[in-house]
Design a protein that fits this description.
With about 90 residues, the chain is mostly helical. The chain has a domain at about 50-88. Helices cover about 55% and strands about 0% of the residues. The protein has two helices and no strands.
Length: about 90
Amino acid sequence: MATVESVPENVNLNVEESAHVPEENTDNLTLGLLINVKNLVDLAIARGAYKPNELTAVGKVYDQYTAGLNKLQTQSQLNNVEDKSTPQ
């Protein structure tokens, strides 16, 4: 088991803290939550949580996940631009 001393100093977990966590409906996926999942996987990889023979499978899933996440981020940004340019 890894100790805190064995973790590289330059590994940061960039998890955004929500100002308000809804009590009643916690089954919604948000873009922020999906980004946090990616950051957790990045941290696990950096800390050596996966065995070498598992890295190919983890890499394939990671690549698919980040490609989908990047597409969602782009769509979200486009939606924000369209919303701002639409007269109210």
